[in-house]
Specification:
about 300 residues; Spore Coat Polysaccharide Biosynthesis Protein SpsA, Chain A; 2 domains; ten-stranded mixed β-sheet
Length: about 300
C-alpha cells in the first residue's frame, strides 16, 4: 500500500470560500490514500456548519474546532502535529487547487528524489478586489534554496508539499512566527532540497479579508514581532542565512521607524533606526525603501 498523504487546511470565517477549497482537494486523483485535517480557528460565521457537512459525507476528513481564536500559527501547528502522513500538503481555506493531479505530481516528484524534502508549484493570483489575475511568480529553476526564498516571495501558500517533519518538537522560531510560511520552508530545507514544478496548479486568492490585506499584517506590532522571529531564526540557523536575515530585519525596522515618524513619534522612530543600524551595515540601511521618508517625517517634527 502506498504512503498516506495528509492535507492540512486552516480556516477562519471563510464561509464564502471553504467549500471550493475542500471540493478542489476531494477531486484530486491519486494512487495513494489521503487524509484531510482542517483547523477551524473559532469561526463565527457558517464555516463550522460547512465543515460538519463535509465530515459527515467523507470519512477521511476531520477537523479541529478551537474554542477561542488561536491565530494562524497555533491553528496550523495544532493540525500539523496530528497528521499521520508520510507527506504533508498545506492550504488556506480561501485558496483552491485547479489541477486534479497536483498531489500526484508532487508525490511522484518526492518519491523519485529522496534528497528533496519538499516541492512547490506556481499559482494564479486571483485578486477579487481589483478583479485582475496574474501568475504568482516567475520561476525558472527546478530547485530553490533558502537564500532564494528569503530574498523573494516565491512559494504560493497552497502549493507546498513536503516530508512530515512535524512529529517532534517544533522550533521556537516557527511557534513565534508572523511569517509562518517562510519559517516552515526554511525548516523543511534542513531535511533536504526544495524542488519546483513550474506549472500553476492552485489559485492564490486576494480579498478584503485576506491576512495580507489586514492592518494586523502591516503595522508596527507586526513588524516588531517579525524582527523577533528573525532573531530566533538567526539563533537556530547560525551563520547559514545570517547576513540575509539581518538585512531583512533592518528592512522591517526601517519600515517601523517610518510608521512611528508618520505618527510624529520621533523618539520611537529614532530608536527603531538605531536598532536597524545594529542589524545591518549603514550603507545597506540607507538603501532601504523607507529610510529617506523616515528622515523626512522626523525633520518635519522639529
Amino acid at each position: 500500500m502506498k504512503s498516506l498523504v495528509s492535507i492540512c487546511v486552516i480556516t477562519y470565517n471563510q464561509e464564502n470560500y471553504i467549500r471550493e477549497t475542500l471540493d478542489s482537494i476531494i477531486s484530486q486523483k491519486t494512487s495513494f490514500p489521503i487524509e484531510i485535517i482542517i483547523g477551524d480557528d473559532c469561526s463565527t460565521d457558517k464555516t463550522k456548519k460547512i465543515l460538519m457537512e463535509f465530515c459527515e459525507k467523507y470519512s477521511n476528513i476531520s477537523y479541529v474546532s478551537h474554542k477561542q481564536n488561536k491565530g494562524i500559527v497555533e491553528n496550523l501547528l495544532s493540525i500539523l502535529q496530528i497528521a499521520k502522513g508520510k507527506y504533508i500538503a498545506i492550504s488556506g481555506g480561501d485558496d483552491y487547487w485547479i489541477n486534479p493531479f497536483k498531489l500526484q505530481k508532487q508525490y511522484d516528484f518526492l518519491e523519485s528524489k529522496p534528497d528533496f524534502a519538499a516541492c512547490f508549484h506556481n499559482a494564479i493570483v486571483k485578486n477579487e478586489i481589483n478583479k485582475k489575475s496574474k501568475i504568482f511568480a516567475r520561476l525558472n529553476k527546478t530547485e530553490y534554496t533558502g537564500f532564494d526564498i528569503i530574498r523573494n516571495w516565491l512559494i504560493p501558500a497552497a502549493s507546498i508539499f513536503g516530508k512530515n517533519i512535524f512529529t517532534s518538537e517544533i522550533p521556537e522560531f516557527i511557534k513565534k512566527a508572523t511569517h509562518e510560511d517562510l519559517a516552515i520552508y526554511l525548516y523543511l530545507l534542513e531535511f533536504g532540497k526544495m524542488g519546483c514544478i513550474n506549472s500553476p496548479m492552485s489559485v492564490y486568492r486576494i480579498h478584503n479579508n485576506s491576512i495580507t490585506q489586514t492592518d494586523a499584517f502591516k503595522g508596527i506590532e507586526h513588524n516588531l514581532k517579525h524582527v523577533r522571529q528573525i532573531e530566533l531564526m538567526i539563533e537556530f540557523f547560525g551563520n547559514k542565512y545570517k547576513t540575509l536575515l539581518k538585512k531583512r530585519a533592518a528592512d522591517y525596522l526601517v519600515s517601523t521607524a517610518y510608521l512611528y515618524a508618520k505618527e510624529e513619534k520621533s523618539e520611537q522612530a529614532k530608536s527603531a533606526l538605531k536598532h536597524a543600524f545594529r542589524f545591518s551595515k549603514p550603507v545597506i540601511v540607507r538603501k532601504t525603501k523607507y529610510f529617506l521618508g523616515t528622515l523626512y517625517y522626523i525633520a518635519l517634527k522639529k
